[in-house]
Amino acid sequence: MAYLRGLLVALAAAPVVFGQNAAYKTCLRSAVAGGGSVAFPDALLYQEVDVNRYNLNIPVTPAAVTFPTSTDQVAAIVKCAADNGYPVQAKSGGHSYGNYGLGGTDGAIVVDMKNFQQFSMNYTTWHATIGPGTLLEDITTRLYNAGKRAMAHGTSPQIGAGGHFTIGGLGPLSRQFGMALDHTLEVEVVLANGTVVRASESDNSDVFWAIRGAGSGFGIVTEFIVRTEPAPGTAVQYEFSISVGDAKSQAALYKQWQAYVSNPDLTWKLASTLWVLQDTMIISGTYFGTKAEYDALDMASQFPGANGTAIVFEDFLGLVAEWGEEIALKLSGGIPSNFYAKSTAWTPQDLMSDASIDQFFEYVETANKGTLLWLLVFDFEGGFINEIPADATSYPHRDVLIWLQTYSINLLGSVTPTMIKFLDQLNVLANTSAPYEAYPGYVDPLLQNGPQAYWGANLPRLERIKADIDPNNVFSNPQSPQPAS
Ligand SMILES: Cc1cc2nc3c(=O)[nH]c(=O)nc-3n(C[C@H](O)[C@H](O)[C@H](O)COP(=O)(O)OP(=O)(O)OC[C@H]3O[C@@H](n4cnc5c(N)ncnc54)[C@H](O)[C@@H]3O)c2cc1C
Ligand SMILES: *[C@@H]1O[C@H](CO)[C@@H](O)[C@H](O)[C@H]1NC(C)=O
Ligand SMILES: *[C@@H]1O[C@H](CO)[C@@H](O)[C@H](O)[C@H]1NC(C)=O
Ligand SMILES: *[C@@H]1O[C@H](CO)[C@@H](O)[C@H](O)[C@H]1NC(C)=O
Ligand SMILES: *[C@@H]1O[C@H](CO)[C@@H](O)[C@H](O)[C@H]1NC(C)=O
């Protein structure tokens, strides 16, 4: 870590100057007066403390990082930025793979939403009000403590609601409840002209549609109202693993898993992820039900030759803590690092053939990967996510059965071309059908035509809405939708 800190200081020392006049600074200082604050690039420890990049491989120096405490302050900040010609991005948990919460490229005005921690439960409707700065770990406990409620979202505790609920939000409960964005019933949003609106199916429905899947290009959400569900009771956390790393046994286990999860009658109560790491391959997940129900699925017979374990959790908070530890162990703990990641997906119609699977794992075994810290994550989705029409929200990938995330980390320095080539080639061998689909929550800054891959058939409508409510592209990062011309 000392090395990383040295690197940070070296980067912070590079002088970056924005704007020849100080008008935006004066404007921002008055925008946050009365509780909020703002930091500029000349601040001491600006990079380390105020900016605090998640992906160390992507340098980014914002023109300012603001810390508002009210919706009115957010609106005033957006107006300052728009009037002075600066792009704006909100930062909630700061976990964008491309540092898009920091603008993704130099010179943005960042609106750090960490002070937006409001929470309340309506005990009649079981609708919860959640501030966008709330991290997933706090959402879990606050919902549980308010009448044992829950919602679907990812497993990494440090992700923020602001970036997660507006872009997707896949997690172990998604097959039952949908994505995090499918829980959203209403939002309060600051638009590009500084207007504050509430958006839902009935009010500002275009804004509401765009915010559920492509939020960062359309506004800053200052409040979410979400549908909640009774928190699961008993659950079984299972794991099957093989420690040998040869291509044949890995391909065989993958084929068994793919066949198992592509059964359309498989219960929505089953979540499953297949992990491939250096020297090991693991199938793990949760069955939301009793041990007897889990045993009746007889998963062990599906994966002969793998070592299986199953742990019963009676307590939902304990189960969620276990998920967090699992991801921390496998993904370097959500600690900032130099990394690169890509995603691709299969629908039930274009799953890999046996020949493709053999080729894929042959390559995994023999390729020069450029690092030992690489990871392939195959996530089984479907279920309730697929019941929602592809044009109901701006998130388009409703028919996906399996998402693949490939991930490569370098703890010693920058991401190398060898690391990138390994992930690129995996995507080629995955042999998914064109057009290429990518998960908007796993942004890949090197992707050509990112918006098409993230939003597919929903992109034209997003571009029209963009032209309508943000024609000057105030809310932008390197891959956000452009206004239709
Ligand atoms: C370790 C790790 C594990 C992950 N696991 C999962 C997972 O299990 N499932 C899954 O679906 N995803 C997962 N992700 C991806 C994650 O959901 C996205 O990276 C998400 O966008 C992060 O949100 P954030 O608020 O933490 O990030 P930020 O960097 O703060 O924001 C990300 C983007 O959202 C925008 N944004 C942030 N707040 C707001 C707001 N209030 N209004 C409008 N736009 C906003 C930002 O401008 C930026 O463009 C994981 C990421 C990491 C790093
Ligand atoms: C809960 O929601 C109902 C129905 O919308 C509403 O009438 C009631 O006032 C809400 N309760 C609180 C405490 O906000
Ligand atoms: C299963 O576990 C045993 C004991 O730890 C080990 O010897 C064996 O190699 C494992 N099998 C596989 C397929 O990983
Ligand atoms: C790739 O997919 C196409 C269409 O799904 C299929 O015809 C082809 O055989 C696949 N290639 C391999 C190597 O499996
Ligand atoms: C701000 O933009 C919204 C959406 O385009 C529009 O409805 C509203 O009238 C605008 N407000 C002002 C003050 O221009």
Q: Which terms would index this structure?
A:
485 residues, alpha+beta, Uridine Diphospho-n-acetylenolpyruvylglucosamine Reductase, domain 2, Uridine Diphospho-n-acetylenolpyruvylglucosamine Reductase, domain 3, Vanillyl-alcohol Oxidase, Chain A, domain 3, 3 domains, seven-stranded antiparallel beta sheet, five-stranded antiparallel beta sheet, 16 helices, disordered N terminus, binds flavin-adenine dinucleotide, binds 2-acetamido-2-deoxy-beta-D-glucopyranose, oxidoreductase activity, BBE
Structure description:
Helix 2 runs antiparallel to helix 4 and helix 10 crosses helix 13. The chain is globular and about 65 Å long. The strands form four sheets. Strands 15-12-14-13-17-18-16 form a seven-stranded antiparallel sheet, with helices on both faces. It starts with a helix and ends in a 16-residue tail after the last helix. With about 475 residues, it is of the alpha+beta class. The N terminus is likely disordered. A hairpin with a 4-residue loop joins strand 5 and strand 6. The chain has three domains: about 110 residues, 2-Layer Sandwich (Uridine Diphospho-n-acetylenolpyruvylglucosamine Reductase, domain 2), CATH 3.30.43; about 120 residues, Uridine Diphospho-n-acetylenolpyruvylglucosamine Reductase, domain 3; about 220 residues, Vanillyl-alcohol Oxidase, Chain A, domain 3 (3-Layer(aba) Sandwich). The site of one 2-acetamido-2-deoxy-beta-D-glucopyranose has 6 residues, from loops. It comes from Penicillium angulare. This is FAD linked oxidase N-terminal. GO terms for molecular function: FAD binding; oxidoreductase activity. InterPro entries: BBE (IPR012951), FAD-bd_PCMH (IPR016166), FAD-bd_PCMH-like_sf (IPR036318), FAD-bd_PCMH_sub2 (IPR016169), FAD-linked_Oxidoreductase (IPR050416), Oxid_FAD_bind_N (IPR006094). Keywords: FAD, Flavoprotein, Oxidoreductase, Signal.
